[in-house]
Amino acid sequence: MASKRIYEFEEGSQEMKSLLGGKGAGLAEMTKIGLPVPYGFTITTEVCNEYYKFGEKFPPSLEDEILEHLKKLEEKTKKIFGSSENPLLVSVRSGAPVSMPGMMDTILNLGLNDLTVEGLSKLTKDKRFAYDSYRRFITMFSNVVMGIEHKNFEEILEETKERFGVKSDAEIPFGGLKEIVDKFKQLYKKETGENFPQDPYKQLMMAIEAVFKSWNNKRAIEYRRIYKIPENLGTAVNIQMMVFGNAGYDSGTGVGFTRDPATGENKLYGEYLLNAQGEDVVAGIRTPKPIEELKNDIPSAYEELLRIKDILEKHYRDIQDFEFTIEKGKLFMLQTRTGQRTPIAAVKIAVDMFEEGVISKEEAVMRVNPYQVELLLHPMIDPKANVKVIAKGLPASPGAAYGKVVFDTDEAALRGNNGDEILLVRPETTPEDIHGMVAAKGILTARGGMTSHAAVVARGMGKPCIVGCEEIKIDMNGEFFVSPDGTKISKDEYITIDGGTGRVILGKAPLIEPEISGNLEKLLKFADEIRKLGVRANANTPEDAKKAKKFGAEGIGLLRIERMFLDPNRLPIVQDMIMAKTKEEREVHLKKIVPMIQKDFEEMIEIMDNLPVTIRLLDPPLHEFLPQRERIEDEIKSLKENNGDIEEIKKREKILKRIKELYEHNPMIGWRGCRVGIVYPEIYEAMIEAIIMAGINLKRKGFNPVIEIMHPLVAHENELKILKDMTDKVAEEAMKREGIEIKYLVGTMIEVPRAALCADKIAKYAEFFSFGTNDLTQTTYAFSRDDVEASFLPFYIDKKILPENPFMVLDIEGVGKLVEIGTKLGKESNSQLEVGICGEHGGEPASVKFFHKAGLDYVSCSPFRIPIAKLSAAQAVVEEKFAKKEAYSDSR
Amino acid sequence: MASKRIYEFEEGSQEMKSLLGGKGAGLAEMTKIGLPVPYGFTITTEVCNEYYKFGEKFPPSLEDEILEHLKKLEEKTKKIFGSSENPLLVSVRSGAPVSMPGMMDTILNLGLNDLTVEGLSKLTKDKRFAYDSYRRFITMFSNVVMGIEHKNFEEILEETKERFGVKSDAEIPFGGLKEIVDKFKQLYKKETGENFPQDPYKQLMMAIEAVFKSWNNKRAIEYRRIYKIPENLGTAVNIQMMVFGNAGYDSGTGVGFTRDPATGENKLYGEYLLNAQGEDVVAGIRTPKPIEELKNDIPSAYEELLRIKDILEKHYRDIQDFEFTIEKGKLFMLQTRTGQRTPIAAVKIAVDMFEEGVISKEEAVMRVNPYQVELLLHPMIDPKANVKVIAKGLPASPGAAYGKVVFDTDEAALRGNNGDEILLVRPETTPEDIHGMVAAKGILTARGGMTSHAAVVARGMGKPCIVGCEEIKIDMNGEFFVSPDGTKISKDEYITIDGGTGRVILGKAPLIEPEISGNLEKLLKFADEIRKLGVRANANTPEDAKKAKKFGAEGIGLLRIERMFLDPNRLPIVQDMIMAKTKEEREVHLKKIVPMIQKDFEEMIEIMDNLPVTIRLLDPPLHEFLPQRERIEDEIKSLKENNGDIEEIKKREKILKRIKELYEHNPMIGWRGCRVGIVYPEIYEAMIEAIIMAGINLKRKGFNPVIEIMHPLVAHENELKILKDMTDKVAEEAMKREGIEIKYLVGTMIEVPRAALCADKIAKYAEFFSFGTNDLTQTTYAFSRDDVEASFLPFYIDKKILPENPFMVLDIEGVGKLVEIGTKLGKESNSQLEVGICGEHGGEPASVKFFHKAGLDYVSCSPFRIPIAKLSAAQAVVEEKFAKKEAYSDSR
Q1: Pairs of CB atoms within 8 A across A/B
Q2: Model confidence over B355-389: pLDDT tens digits?
Q3: Within 10 A of B222 (CB to CB), how many other CB atoms are there?
Q4: What DSSP string describes B56-115?
Q5: What pLDDT is attached to residue A281?
Q6: CA angle (B192, B194, B199) in 5-degree steps
Q7: What φ, ψ does residue A54 adopt, rounded to 5°?
Q8: What's the confidence (pLDDT) of residue A101?
Q9: CA separation for the pair B819, B812 (Å, rounded)
Q10: CA distance A424 to chain B (A)
């Protein structure tokens, strides 16, 4: 025997969770701190692994050990297992180290048989109670151990109630219950071919084995797969003396929270049923009462609960989710664990507990999962609104959106691109649906899991998405779907989806834009005090910049200049510039663009006064600014067919020629970024001129512009050397001409592997680095984002070939290694070097924590992800400080 | 004063080459070993740098130091500088540490003026000789110091000879020479506005400064740029007592080699002129005599030369290229240096010298530059053939080719692709000419240097190319060109180009295919004994495999399976497979392909019996096997317009649909390599089956197949885990079924940065790695080879932004770092791991040496590059052993 296999509750503690499971550890801890917990013991998770190692058999001597502990339990409870006089009944419950729905839950009243039921009956002087307990036991055992469907038992129960003319189970008279027990046993025999086991020891061993087996049932495996729970954790088994909530109307059972898990309000929250056992609450046959009413029903128990709530919170220093049973007025605690909470509650509880002096600022920051904060930062359905939920699916990509239902992908693409509000509804999506998904406000699919194509792609696009909504029946030919309540939604009718909860709502639900206020604002202030990483925003327009400031950005970490070129007034000039044959001709067109973009820069730098604004020079290949080849070809064809103007044809033929000249097989790794600015220096010079002039004008007006000029796609130090010289030359000329000096930094994106590998050399010409982890992921993995997300990547993620979508969560092993190498080499070579990262990874919690560890100075992300980044950055500091890496893993 | 500025010849040695320059070090060394060298001293290269540091002025006190050494020279020679009785005359010659054409060469007879010429005249009792020396001095001084063109002096000389009715300079009587001297001085005055300097000290200082200035003349700068010679080497200045080859017919001057530099034959080789000074040999006015004739003209000098040849070779242990002067029967040595030699001579000399016991095997291997060997391994013009060279240009890309001259790029592309033998002739090329270059046998341009677009692209394609052939005049409209001798070559006439020498030859010259025999074979045997790196070949067909074996391959390092799919009998089946909708359907088509490719495998593995054959599974994206989209669209259009068969239209529309489905924006980093084999496992399984069955059949026949199955484009260890399991499963089933066990290895390409960065994890599932440095360069640099070589890369190389084309010479700093990381991590994690590299870098000398240092086990390259790889690998061992990195840098 390797180690101790079984622990009495008195022997355990909360820290032994991995060995005793969550439930076992909670029972042990509550026993330790003196709460009223019925006696019992826990078979460890390691035994579960042993069971599988022995080919799904109990390891030798396990049975003896169980019997030994059962003996002890008999001594403590002064009852005898299997006795017809004073029978000991037990509950058998599973308990993995991590909460895991899908596993076998509970068997109550184990130990009852035709003999002990009589003993119980005599002992309690309550035949009805004894047989009620027996029929419950047979149902649970048959169902969870032997897999007999619940509804078979329900039918017998219903038939009996009808026959006796009663409505609730509690009203069935003794005679009826006795009949039911007989019929249940017959059902068991019919279904299994064997008699219902009368030997309590056999019942116990079968129940324990059922718990072990449930570790590997389909749902449990699937759950572990989705939530990345290791296969070898195993489940513990808790065997506990029964207390009876069904012992009359001075008894009952319920669940509670030490605070409101929905709002976070600090008050006892929960519900209970009188004269009932646990499974009645779960089954939902009777409607439980709110916990406040217990004050009237069993006042002493209510008082006791209030006392215990305080003890639990003081002890655990976090919201607790507990189960209790009242047996003839006496309260027993059956479980406690950290309470799940909504994002809003999580934030409120963290802030309240700090303000109550229960936890520190660091702990408060650790109590909120950044992924939860993300849910608070998408457009949400107004919680005050009265909405009609017509179906529920899997919450695949957060945020809420409404739109007209469209089933055809091509139609969705066409109408969506023309500005129509479209929601794409499909049985499932495939790579061929990408264009429709791009154009839709949100996506709803009837099939697929959290890693299906639709889910992966929608998350990548940051679009609300619900998948696996199997409740709706889609008729693709009729172009409608029907919800479980029979509502028929035809094409073009509005629905709203909430990708954070999986709710499908009829019509246009009122949405509210997220904002930072109240408790969230307080929490982020805590984070600001703790974190070391700066947090900037990616912003391309003055609107973005304002939003970024509102969300607490400490500057702009990425301003993409090319977005300014797409303005319909400017694009033709840009196109003329690209069509030009000579440097001189290009310069003529650039001269027209400079004042336009200069105005944009001025506006944005003014908004960010005193804060850095990092402007990236032109990044895409030139051909991206020319019209689509097919369009021009069609136009030429049509002009020719209609004897169109020769000059118009010629003009288009020229454009077509240039498009063909600039065509690239792999534009992502072609002639773009600084490679354009080096071959055509006049293009970059014009942009630098506009930026510097914006700074000069602002300085003249009394502002304090903090400008960082960023060159994209540098792979070799010689490129940056040329670009730095160019930048300084243009800036110096402008400053001399205008008679005003401004400060500016010159730096580079680190977005190709070579730049990271040779960062020491590049850092000689750089005042800052900004990792472009999106492009760096593309090149490090050789993944073209435009292609792989539509082809094999969803397959890879679904099959767990890749642990995560590397465009969402930074690939720390690979891309992260380059970030570490680049940062280390860069800072060693140039101690003044400022190092940041811009791109979506800058707002992804796990990635942000990594960037902190890698020694970066700041992250830059979309404005709405700034709070997530700040919180993650603060958590990184706390985790580093206390190495408390598991502190919030439960609440995830 | 920083350090000693001037060295007497007796004070220096060969080792001081960087300080004294090549010429100065040679003179010092010859003085040291007792050869007859006229007295003199050397001003160091550092003084040249000082000169530029002082703003092109002599550093203070330099003049005094020169005068001091001049004084010593007067003492040694017992002559007086500037004396009208016994004048000391000197030569002034430049000498950089590296031989560098374009710099000022030589001024002889310095110290002569109107007075000293009379002294010389009296002293030698030879007026004619004195004035002949004077007129030579004025010419050289005027030309190299003052830049007066040579032809001005020639005119006067010619006019005088005519007037005196003589033919050669040596026949001009004293009177004529005196006239000439007067006219030369007048010319000098006319051109410079000043009198010819009569002060010998002034002459000397002006000459020295001219040497310094010539370091930065245009030709010298250009030469340094092309050959990557550092700017700060500087040149030394040698000042040496004159000895006179023009002192009568018992005097003379010449150049020689200790062996024949063209063939390598071990015999005195050279030529000389009687009664002449050095510049007569260079100017080529008189035809020099072959050195054998000196035996008759001045027998004692000839004997002395033979003696000195042996001393030089014994001392320098390499072929020497020397200059000598005979003054009245006495031989003086004026220069010696390592002799340039042709590739054939280099190989012969290295082998001979080893066989003569002069050098070791290691030294022999170091004596041949692998780049020279490359020239021996392209098709060559038969050296025995009588060819007519009509022009010469820059040898931009080696190899010889003939073809019909075509001037229009589109025409060249069209005809070339249709199998016509085309040579593309253009004024220069631009990215728009790529398609024509691809289709041509070779390229000839009138403009551009060694790094021009045509040069860079042609080298990338491995095509013969001559650039900068400015001698030819191209008439693009008339479609012809004219060579300097007036030959007119019209479109469609045949020419031959030799890209290794720059020769343009009329008509079809007979070409010979390279082979390994004779001395080269011997040299490679030396290399085989020394090298540690294995050398395999990239081979896709049985023909390739045979060639590889002939060239000495130790196996096949890369067999690209997809080449087997392009066979016209197979492609339609492959296309059907790609069009298939289901796995089952795909399997049906794959079953047809398996026996076909299995036969190919058998043939190739049999050729390589006992040697490893590394087979790479399908690498390109599937859409590469489908027809061009435009073609299908045109076909559909045409069928529709002509009321074609509906079924035919439908068939094509299906194909078009699939083409669109599989379309990728960046196929290079899209769905290809193992990503196809993982999503469609049946494709890879079929190939593995074919490979294993080939091995089994061969084993059955008594062969010893050594099979390595290689999975391409692995980025994450989970991919290889799946693929290794798949490979083993298919192999085990086949072996079990056939009852024969064979050995095989499973491994992966390391060709994306992530694979190198995470090589430790990947190595757990790999028995071998093979770096794919072509793709690794693409991803590390973010350079799409299909695009960048046609757009900005030639610009980058021309402007020295990149030191080399990274697709030709491995980028050691960046891509090389990944190779090092990948090799180290891989071998640490799996000590049995075999690590190689396949791709063109495997046959590039500098890259091969790096791979040796990085700890790889083998390189694999094109068959014809195997000798280069072997020699480079051997040199890497020797360089490592002796750290003799500069041993052959001279001969490069």
Answers
A1: 184
A2: 999 999 999 999 999 988 888 888 889 888 899 99
A3: 12
A4: SSPPTTHHHHHHHHHHHHHHHHT-EET-SSSEE-EEEEEE-SS--TTS--EEEEET--TT
A5: 67
A6: 120
A7: -85, 20
A8: 67
A9: 9
A10: 20
Specify burial of residue B702 (Cβ count, 10 A radius: 0-12, 13-18, 19+).
exposed
Q: Measured between alpha carbons, how far is B883 from A18 in angstroms, rounded to an integer?
A: 59
B288 in reach of chain A (CB within 8 A): no
Positions of chain A with pLDDT lower than 70, given as ranges: 1-2, 101-102, 226, 281-285, 451, 460, 883-892
Residue B429 C-alpha, separation from nearest chain A C-alpha, in angstroms = 14
User: How many angstroms away from the CA of A875 is the closest CA of chain B?
Assistant: 28
- B855 neighbors B824 (Cβ within 8 angstroms): yes
d(CA B188, CA A479): 100
Instruction: Find the Cα–Cα–Cα–Cα dihedral A187, A191, A193, A199, rounded to 10°.
Output: -60
- With a CB cutoff of 8 Å and minimum separation 6, the contacts of A107 are A91, A92, A93, A137, A140, A141, A144, A145, A207, A210
Q: What 3-state class would DSSP assign to B657?
A: helix
Q: What amino acid occupies position B322?
A: F
For residues B554 and B532, give the distance between their C-alpha atoms in angstroms, rounded to a whole number. 12
Q: Enter the ipTM.
A: 0.82
- In angstroms, the Cα distances linking B309 to B73, B271, B340, B358, B443 are 28, 14, 16, 14, 43
For residue B890, the 8-state DSSP code is G
Contact in structure between A70 and A80 (CB atoms under 8 Å):
no
Helix axes A343-355, A518-530, angle to 10 degrees: 70
Backbone angles phi, psi at A404, to 5 degrees: -80, 135
With beta carbons under 8 A apart, name residues in chain A contacting B814: 715-716, 753-754, 757-758
- State the maximum Cα–Cα separation within chain A, in Å, rounded to a whole number: 109
| 3-class DSSP assignment, residue B755 | helix
Q: Which residues of A are catalytic?
A: 453, 838
Among the listed residues A883, A761, A890, A871, the one whose alpha carbon sits nearest the alpha carbon of residue A361 = A871
DSSP strand pairing (A465-467 vs A442-445):
parallel
Please tell me the predicted confidence (pLDDT) of residue B288.
Answer: 85
What is the tens place of the pLDDT at every residue in A349-358? 999 999 999 9
Answer yes or no: are the C-beta atoms of B562 and B619 closer than 8 Å. yes
**Cα gap A638→B450, rounded to integer Å:** 47
What percent of chain A stands above pLDDT 70?
97
List of chain B residues whose C-beta atoms are within 8 Å of the C-beta of residue A815: 754
Does residue B777 sit at the A interface (CB-CB below 8 Å)? no
Entry pTM: 0.83
Pick from A733, A831, A803: which is nearest to A227 by CA? A803
- Residue A665: CB atoms within 10 A of its CB come to 16
Query: For this structure, is B453 an active site residue?
Result: yes
Q: Does B818 touch chain A (CB under 8 A)?
A: yes
Catalytic-residue membership of B665: no
Q: Which of the residues in chain B have pLDDT under 50?
A: 1, 884-892
Separation CA A384–CA B271 (nearest Å): 106
Residue A413 to residues A97, A425, A490, B97, B110, Cα–Cα distance (Å): 46, 12, 18, 69, 87
pLDDT tens readout for residues A531-584: 999 999 999 999 899 999 999 999 999 999 988 898 888 999 999 999 999 999
Q: Which helix (H) or strand (E) holds B397?
A: strand B394-397
pLDDT attached to residue A283: 58
**C-beta separation of B843 from B851 below 8 A:** no
Q: Which run of H or of E encompasses B270?
A: strand B269-274
Cβ burial of B428 (10 Å; 0-12, 13-18, 19+) is: middle
